[in-house]
Design goal:
Elements lengths: L6 H13 L3 H5 L2 E8 L10 E3 L1 H8 L2 H4 E5 L4 E4 L5 E12 L5 E13 L2 E7 L19
Parallel strand pairs: 1-7
Antiparallel strand pairs: 1-2, 3-5, 4-5, 5-6, 6-7
């Protein structure tokens, strides 16, 4: 596959890598100094990850917790900054430990520069991790 040519294409490619459980490939899309933020992270969850290594450590075990099946309702919006997109989507699958359903709604603001993700603000629903029987809902926890 040729390299994605736009932030939207790169983002779609990143989702395919997550569905394929290719976390090293997903991490490879990041700039060395990339920043991942979780503005609504509850207490005890990281609010910010600085650098590719920190993001890799956070995401390393994602497939051990969530078996993703798809991203329905994907909508990618361009902004006045051609490097930045706003993404609306759902991630669906199952929780590996319990076999229970995973269904999370996300809004993300993603910035790409020189073909690499430099900023990813993930506005996932922190209430989902507080629901009984759900011990994992966000990335890497």
């Amino acid at each position: 596959m040729s390299a994605p040519t736009s932030p939207a294409d790169l983002y779609r490619h990143s989702l395919r890598l997550l569905l394929d459980k290719n976390i090293p490939g997903w991490i490879g899309l990041w700039a060395e100094d990339g920043v991942m933020e979780f503005p609504f992270a509850p207490d005890g969850w990281p609010g910010r990850l600085d650098g590719k290594d920190a993001i890799a450590a956070y995401m390393r075990h994602y497939p051990d917790h969530i078996d993703l099946h798809g991203f329905p309702d994907l909508r990618i919006h361009e902004t006045t900054d051609p490097r930045t997109i706003v993404v609306e989507m759902r991630g669906v699958g199952r929780l590996v430990e319990t076999g229970g359903p995973f269904d999370m709604t996300y809004i993300a603001v993603v910035t790409v520069q020189d073909g690499r993700i430099t900023s990813y603000r993930d506005y996932w629903n922190p209430l989902a991790v507080l629901e009984p029987g759900t011990d994992f809902a966000g990335s890497g926890r």
